């Protein structure tokens, strides 16, 4: 492979140090994508390349070219976890569990562009319909849920000459945190996902097993995020800051009875449900078709959380989600690829941190529960960048 400079790279020490590169396959002359990362080395963690190979028949997911650990596994493996029980580290709470990480590389066929490159609302909605289609097929054929649907994990890919800018395919990438239905509590020593786009359930102090509808909820939040950053509306910097600070970035720190702490969130997302989508209504001037779609999404999410008695069967989950993404030509005729408008990220003092006293209901189900999160982007990403992680 002939490798480019990195087009995606970590901006935080608290990460898997993932870098992404556009590369040329010297045999086929095709441009493909190389992901260089440090995968979690745990018994209950599947290798992403193996996951992709197992998802036969699933559309709109990456096509694996090759993958594997880098060098000698004993050489390219982190050592930090070996010291978590050391005497000098004994003051740290037992809840903070560490695992080793292994240097890993993966090449996929789809070298795409991030959602920030969207042409307009039409391309955005076509892409999210593609992504949901892939999510549903993965669920039906392989009982697999993604668990990290987010702005950075969806790309546009021009797979053929007729899939040009404005008509690109939506691809859901980064499946390493996915799990199968039979193991919805897998890896319960941390919460997986990207904080801003996590579902209400995932952000709660006592989360229930992950379900397809939680990934669907995250996909709705991705659409809302794209709308306030990259589509035309009656832009107001205070409104933009309010949405980002409260709806996307807000978290609360809960003290437990043993003086340890856990981080939870989602209270403003709950408020959004009980107040008929009040945060979805804040950006005035969004295209009417998008406003209606966001309103329908609130109704669907509300029905999932608060229907009595709730139907948790796989078929019920699909019936709850499918109407949002079974998009017709009637919807697309009211969307456009000429309504792109980029809005800078507003400055604010940072996410609100609220200390909440412990209550019996705020005790997590497992003493091993920890939080591993990725925050929403702090700066406008590079418009020429490709996949992120």
UniProtKB/TrEMBL annotation:
Chain positions covered by the region annotation Disordered: 357-389
A Pfam cross-reference name: Pkinase_fungal
Coiled-coil ranges (or none): none
InterPro entries with a match to the protein in the record: Kinase-like_dom_sf, Pkinase_fungal, Prot_kinase_dom
Domain Protein kinase: residue ranges: 1-325
Composition bias type Low complexity, residue spans: 357-367
Chain intervals with Polar residues compositional bias: 378-389
Gene Ontology molecular function terms on file: ATP binding; protein kinase activity
PANTHER family cross-referenced by the UniProt entry: FUNK1 11, FUNK1 6
Protein name, per record: Protein kinase domain-containing protein
């Amino acid at each position: 492979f002939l490798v480019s400079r990195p087009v995606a790279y970590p901006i935080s020490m608290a990460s898997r140090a993932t870098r992404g590169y556009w590369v040329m396959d010297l045999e086929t002359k095709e441009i493909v994508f190389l992901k260089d990362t440090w995968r979690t080395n745990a018994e209950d963690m599947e290798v992403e390349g193996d996951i992709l190979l197992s998802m036969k028949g699933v559309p709109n997911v990456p096509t694996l070219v090759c993958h594997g650990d880098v060098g000698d596994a004993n050489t390219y493996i982190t050592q930090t976890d070996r010291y978590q029980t050391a005497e000098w580290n004994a003051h740290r709470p037992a809840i903070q569990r560490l695992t080793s990480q292994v240097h890993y590389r993966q090449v996929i066929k789809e070298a795409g562009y991030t959602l920030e490159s969207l042409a307009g609302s039409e391309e955005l909605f076509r892409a999210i319909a593609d992504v949901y289609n892939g999510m549903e097929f993965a669920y039906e054929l392989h009982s697999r849920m993604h668990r990290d649907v987010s702005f950075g994990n969806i790309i546009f890919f021009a797979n053929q000459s007729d899939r040009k800018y404005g008509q690109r395919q939506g691809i859901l990438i980064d499946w390493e945190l996915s799990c199968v239905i039979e193991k919805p509590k897998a890896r319960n020593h941390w919460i997986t996902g990207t904080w801003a786009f996590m579902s209400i359930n995932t952000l709660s102090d006592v989360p229930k097993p992950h379900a397809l509808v939680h990934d669907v909820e995250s996909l709705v939040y991705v659409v809302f995020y794209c709308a306030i950053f990259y589509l035309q509306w009656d832009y107001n910097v205070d409104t933009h800051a309010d949405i980002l600070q409260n709806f996307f970035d807000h978290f609360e720190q809960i003290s437990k009875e043993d003086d340890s702490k856990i981080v939870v969130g989602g209270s403003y997302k709950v408020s959004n449900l009980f107040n008929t989508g009040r945060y979805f209504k804040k950006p005035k001037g969004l295209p009417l078709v998008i406003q209606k779609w966001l309103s329908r999404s609130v109704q669907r999410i509300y029905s999932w959380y608060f229907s009595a008695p709730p139907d948790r069967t796989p078929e019920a989950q699909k019936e709850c989600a499918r109407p949002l993404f079974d998009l017709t030509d009637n919807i697309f005729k009211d969307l456009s690829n000429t309504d792109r408008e980029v809005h800078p990220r507003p400055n604010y003092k940072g996410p609100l941190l609220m200390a909440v006293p412990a209550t019996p209901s705020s005790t997590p189900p497992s003493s091993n529960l920890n939080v591993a999160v990725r925050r929403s982007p702090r700066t406008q990403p590079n418009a020429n960048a490709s996949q992120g992680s």
